[in-house]
Design brief:
Length: about 450
Amino acid sequence: MLQRFKRLFTRKASPAGTPLQIPASRYQMSPADVSPGAREVVEKLEAAGHRALVVGGCVRDTLLGKKVKDFDIATDATPEQVRTLFRRARIVGRRFQIVHVHMGRELVEVTTFRAPHQQTDEAGTGRAHRELARRNQRGILLRDNVFGSLEEDAERRDFTINAIYYDPTADQLLDFVGGLEDIAQQSLRIIGDPAVRFREDPVRMLRAARFRAKLGFTLHPATAEPMNQLRPLLAEVPPARLFDELVKLLMTGHGVAAYEALCEYGLLEYLLPDTAAATADPDAERFLRQALINTDQRIANHQRVTPGFLFAALLWPPIIHTAARLESGKGTGAALGQAISEVLARAVRHVAIPRRFSTPAREIWELQQRLEQPHRKSAEQLLGHPRFRAGYDFLLLREQSGELPGGAGEWWTGYQEASGADREAMLAELQPAPRSRRRRRSRRRAPATDAE
Ligand code: ATP
Ligand code: MG
């Protein structure tokens, strides 16, 4: 599909300051590429006298022949005006207000044209403006609600390939920033001064990694250049936003490529520092890759993936490293428990993993020792554990990556498939709870050895 785009792409000069206006048919795009809900939103806004265009990932992905995730609309109507035009519409966000418009089962995001900010905004403008746009001392935008023109809106977007507008009424593409050319070049180029734009919103560095992974495009050298120095600014991004971004990076079908991009740009250590440190160990690296290969495959097969399982995998290498360090002083179980608490506590300082995901992750970790050594008494009970399936999949992942020798996984596979009588036979072959026996025996034996 990219080849098709390249074939269709012709460089067309436009007088300075005017956008490249191109009939969409040139790129074999038509109003039919826009979802019914998004088209209705555009029509309604236009009927009320506003300007409304489709923009962002949906235009980019349509041009590339990729499946479109959702539709974003840009308009000159204010969020309040948008809200009152639709029956099921809600203004969301504070830092950056958008309107969620529900059309049937579809969610359409409508944003008002924004103006870019000059570094002088704070000093040079009045109080009202400061309320709408705020930065901290390091240039990070804390609020971004200064409305502007369509041209200004194009300039405040992140990458040129994300700033191509489609006007379904005129059936025209509008390109103010060379986005079409960058698609043809497979280049990820940030709009404006890269250092300023990454400072304003360090998450754009993560978005660079995501689009690199999703599209296979390369970062334009000028865009890549300041990242080395600005990566530490990710520490200033609220951990809840980093969690969302990390899920988008790793759980949308190109997790392996995203992981590689995060490592290549040195970003992983600002998201999951313990995991990044653990990847120095080739076994840990193999385990993480395998987890992401499996996640990508499951998504490709339309199987369910959960952040609980993914985070269980991402934090497992540092957990076993930490447990191994602690083990000399305590039993294996106690060391693992403490390692889990330590690693999780450190992780959530960077990436806010909600409890509804960290609790299942913890259960998956805690099931591992019991699954590794099935016992006569506990096997049936474990099978009924609400987290059994995830724990078992995790055990298989550990065996598949070579962290554990095979055996237990296969046993559990057989046990689940077996009928009642066969299950009894499988249980009969198992050791009856060897751990408690060992404990009893050693307690009895210890004084005797002393006496000898
Ligand atoms: P996808 O939907 O595939 O994740 P997308 O490009 O549509 O990709 P969204 O997060 O949906 O990404 O954002 C929609 C559009 O809003 C982007 O294409 C871009 O133009 C703009 N945008 C999003 N996040 C930022 C940001 N942090 N800084 C500047 N512009 C942004
Ligand atoms: Mg989008």
